[in-house]
Amino acid sequence: MIALWYGILAFMLTTYIVLDGRNFGAGILHWIVARNQDERRQVIAAIGPLWSWHEVWLVGTGGVMVMAFPRLMAASFSGCYLALFLILWCVLLRGISIEVGGHMSDRLWQEFWDAVFVFSNVLLAVLFGAALGNIARGVPLTGDGVFYLPFFTNFGVHGNVGLLDWYTVPMSLFCVLILTAHGATYLTMKTTGAVHERSVRLARRLWVAVIPAFVIITVLTWFVRPELLAGIALRPVAWATLVICAAGAYAMVNGFRYQREYLALLGSTFLLFGLLMTGAAALFPVMLFSTTDPNLRLTAADCAAPDFSLGIAAAWWFPALILAICYLCIIQRHYSGKVNVSKDNQGLY
Amino acid sequence: METTLIDPAFWHRIHFAFTITYHYLFPQLTMGLAWFLVYWKWRAFRTGDEKYNRAARFWAKIFGLNFAVGVVTGIPMEFQFGTNWAGFSKYAGGIIGQTLAMEGMFAFFLESAFIGALIWGEKRLGPRNHFLAAVGVSTGSWLSGFFILVTNAFMQHPLGYTVAPDGTLALSDPGAYLLNPWAFVQFAHNQCAALVTGSFAVAAMGAFYTLRGMHAEQSRLYLNAGTLVGLIASLLVAFPTGDSQAKMVGAHQPATLAAMEGLFQGSKLADVTVIGQPNISQKRLENPIPLPGALSFLAYGTFQSYVRGLDEFPKDTWPDNIELLYYSFHIMITLGTIFILIMAWANWKRWRGRLGSSTALLWVLMLAFPFPYIANSLGWMTTELGRQPWLVYGLFRTEKGYSQVVSAGDAIFTLIGFVGLYFVLGLLFLYLTGREIHKGPDAPTTPKRQEVPA
């Protein structure tokens, strides 16, 4: 039961990052692929209708975390206090910039909200990347199962670590890179004209750049937590997620080669999904690794609510997921294909 | 425990109080407006009359702005359980997490899937599906309210739990937890109060346009719908929902009831004070104007019922801000009574067919719309201050709930951040809402979409 909920939590967080990751990527590329206001409205419209649906996955992840792993929620959120509020503020600013940017056709107004949009998306990608780096590297847990993570200490990966160090900074940059590539792939599918041309070119180059970056990150991870890579080799679940990665990469390459943009997006989605789930499988059963003393780590069983609660929750979670997928199918029909933006249209979508 | 200005508990409480109070300004309107939208979409769908569509379109824009601010200010609420209230999450997360997770999975997915379709998708969806989108969003917003109120009801009147060996709470009876009677009474009271906010806003808009001599047909629609729903909702807030809520407090939180009324010594024939200032150190009310026996009657059903006073409870179980609790409760009650009077007056005029021609009434309706917001906020302050000094009533004290690793300095820093961000957000919201009101419901609809030239 605990393993099931570990899987559900990993699934929800991964789904959030994969879905909202394309918005981060589109936001990072906003000024690069779109050079004038018409083009920028197109980018915003590409992510506009569904951003709140994507963000709900983040809220849902928070809810599931407090329900299934109350100790994890308590330790990690208070321990990363300031970084977490930075994320929340960026989420807030990003949402506002999408909602109000199109409300007026004033040039200054739109340029201002475009800047907020880019800034908050860049910072979100950086912070989520750093967060993943910290999960992999571990946090300075003390004996009571709590910690307080400063932004930086001595940039080392052992002992009294900070949020940023020589492992988490490259990890963060890697996440920015791969999410940007993912966002470019999404824009390739949704846009037309000059934005489309630039997105295609960028997406190809970025995905090529991801390959050496991925090798570097894997090597760094081997230096920081060698047991993680060994864990992948020993765990059949991780083999399955690696197959998903491979299938995703194959689909994406084919998608780009034959200009089947939907296939390319599907491929990049599965590639990201597979990578993150492989990470989750490698970490199991440790939820918070301790950099100060490996014996102080918190495992899923340490953090979990009693089996009875988890069983009750499983009984309603799966029907709820099916309902959510039904909603998605209904609305997806209305948002499929390329976006249309009218210059006169004050609305976003 | 004496709270001081360097106490982290104080700052964590202010942090949550500020962000939740601000957040709830927006959902109360969306929950109140939701069924107006559904009604107008339904009328438009059945009759094909364009005026209902125009009304729905106009209010959907106001709804959309409120919804967006509600979403972005709501996300930090969920995460504050972990960031600022780690002790509480660890202690009760296994139980309250159930409904917090259900809210995300059942309510938010539904709402956020259809909100875009409701606000912008009218042409793409056609009248029937657009009506269904309105139903989806409305249902989602009320479901979300229900799950949050079940969560709050557990904190007020815990049911369905056991204490695990490590001292934390574990769910033992999901039925008792989800069907907590406190949750149903509070949900009914709260949703009626949201309808009061919604209907006063609709009526105020109608009054504003009528006084300006604009949008005659639309403003008639708003005045009629707003005053009718307003009267029904204002009455229901008081009776039976508010009345049951007070009885519930009397039954399960007697110290809170005594503090709400400033009743220091218990008595039969206990008074409700219309006006009066509590003096805690002297243990009395100053300048009171009492209604003899009213409290006994309201709380327990007869004038002869004995109501226990604060003196009969240990001092460390008294709510820790009796003055603020007392004023919150009394101002809420007073405002609620005024709402009934205003709406009764408006409905009398409507019945006589003179709703649109009574200038005095229109002015009152136009200026009245902020007060339901105040009453709603004060109602929640009564609930939450009344629960003190407990986080989970009778089980877990507030001072144990906050995050021990987060200093007062961190909490003040993020509080300042929220105050600043929310101030700007408020200005932005008022400005954009003002623009929509200025454009009005009869503004030409946005022209048809065109392809961007490639």
Please compute the radius of gyration of chain A using only Cα atoms.
20 Å
Uncertain runs of chain A: 343-349
- Strand-residue proportion of chain B: 5-15%
Secondary structure class of chain B reads mainly alpha
Shape of chain A: globular
Terminal Cα span of chain B: 69 Å
Biggest sheet of chain B, in brief?
2 strands, antiparallel
Give the neighbour order of strands across the main sheet of chain B. 1-2
Query: Count of DSSP helices of chain A?
Result: 13
Q: State the share of residues found in helices of chain B, binned by percent.
A: over 70%
Beta percentage of chain A is under 5%
The portion of residues assigned to helices of chain A is over 70%
Q: What's the helix-strand series of chain A? A: HHHHHHHHHHHEEHH
- The residue-averaged pLDDT of chain B reads 90
Give the distance, in angstroms, between the N- and C-terminal Cα atoms of chain A.
42 Å
Structural overview:
The complex is a heterodimer of chains A (349) and B (454). Chain A has 349 residues and is mostly helical. Helix content of chain A is 76%, strand content 1%. Chain A has 13 helices and 2 strands. Chain A has a two-stranded antiparallel sheet with strand order 1-2. In chain A, helix 6 (107-137) crosses helix 7. By secondary structure, chain B is mainly alpha-helical. Chain B has 13 helices and 8 strands. Chain B has helices at 8-47, 50-83, 86-120, 122-156, 174-178, 181-212, 216-252, 254-260, 294-300, 322-351, 359-368, 370-387, 408-439; strands at 161-163, 169-171, 267-268, 272-279, 284-291, 306-307, 390-392, 396-397. In chain B, a hairpin with a 5-residue loop joins strand 1 and strand 2 (169-171). Chain B is globular, with a radius of gyration of 23 Å. At the A-B interface, helix 3, helix 4, helix 5 and helix 13 of A face helix 2, helix 3, helix 4 and helix 13 of B.
Attribute tags:
heterodimer, A: 349 residues, mainly alpha, two-stranded antiparallel ribbon, globular, disordered C terminus, B: 454 residues, 71% helix, 7% strand
